Amino acid sequence: MGNGNMNFEDSNHASYAISLGFALTIANRRETMKKFENAYGKYEQWTKTTPWQKHQANFDAARELGLANESFVKVARYPFYNTLMPAIERVIEISCRNKVQCEAAITTLAIMRYKQDKGDYPETLEQLVEAGYLKEIPMDPWSDKPLVYRKTEGNFILYSVGKNFVDDGGQVIRDDKGKVKQWADESDSVFWPVIK
Question: How close are the terminal C-alpha atoms of the chain, in Å?
Fold first, then answer.
């Protein structure tokens, strides 16, 4: 056709050319599996490190996995790898968050039981361990120190320093609708009191 529109036959040729290009570019199953096995071995090691340890080591998962500054050909060669691997780093982060949130919930209950039994909140988290309310002090994976606990006037505050690795004194960030962004990049993650 001379009017610039692609007809059905031209469209089939284009699809064939694209399919052929992918077939010649994409790595075979064995190469792909080898790349995935190597990456999973690294991820297995990385799950044993905290976000704080990664931060201190200037860790970059994309760089470590060979995903940073990749040429188009290398990206096209391993499309499933390049799609899946960044998601796994996110899963590891969510796992850390879930773990610390569970520990914070257990700690909050221990603090409240302590108050019910003793008549006042503990001065420190160590008192909860000494009195048998906790087996160990809950650690914050974003500081590699205990969760931050402070007794306040008639209450207490319990939080993680969060993803910015800085103790902001229990300050939180809100979205445009005024809702607290619990794991924002620039604030603490407060577990108690529950901030609405």
Answer: 64
- Amino acid identity of 162? G
User: For domain 99-192, is the CATH number 3.30.700?
Assistant: yes
Q: What does the DSSP assignment read for 129-146?
A: HHTTS-SSPPEETTTTEE
pLDDT in tens, 46-104: 889 999 999 999 988 888 877 766 666 666 777 778 788 878 888 889 999 999 999 99
Q: What's residue 1's pLDDT?
A: 47
Q: Where are the beta strands (DSSP E) in 44-193?
A: 139-140, 145-146, 148-152, 155-160, 189-192
Per domain, the residue ranges of the chain are 8-94, 99-192
* Distance, CA of 146 to CA of 141 (rounded, Å): 9
Q: What are phi and psi of 190, to 5 degrees?
A: -90, 125
Question: CB 131: neighbour CB atoms within 10 A?
Answer: 14
* Of 68, 91, 79, nearest in space to 25 by CA: 79
pLDDT of residue 149: 98
